[in-house]
Amino acid sequence: MAHRTVTCPFCQRDFEGQRALAIHVQADHAGRPWVPRCEICGATFESPADLKTHHEVAHRSGRS
Ligand SMILES: [Zn+2]
Ligand SMILES: [Zn+2]
């Protein structure tokens, strides 16, 4: 039952398998440079690491 998850290299989200990742990349990252953006407040960042730090500081998701 275990799905092998793969992480999007652009936005660091996890997907269940290469196919799901490919569909996501086509939908969300096709043809334009992706900018890390907070889903909660819409702020944009220079790198996924900056977005992660923002989440921890501004929204405190509670997951570590
Ligand atoms: Zn992505
Ligand atoms: Zn935010």
Structure, described:
It is a single chain. The protein contains two helices and two strands, in the order E-E-H-H. The chain is of the alpha+beta class. A hairpin with a 6-residue loop joins strand 1 (5-7) and strand 2 (14-16). The chain has two domains: 1-33, Double Stranded RNA Binding Domain (2-Layer Sandwich), CATH 3.30.160; 34-64. The chain has a two-stranded antiparallel sheet. The protein starts with a strand and ends in a 5-residue tail after the last helix. One zinc ion binds at residues 38, 40-41, 43, 54, 58-59.
Per-chain topology:
Elements: E1 5-7, E2 14-16, H1 18-29, H2 48-59
Antiparallel strand pairs: 1-2
This protein binds zinc ion (ZN) (2 copies).
One zinc ion (ZN) binds next to helix 2.
Give a short overview:
The protein is an alpha+beta fold and 64 residues long. Helices cover 38% and strands 9% of the residues.
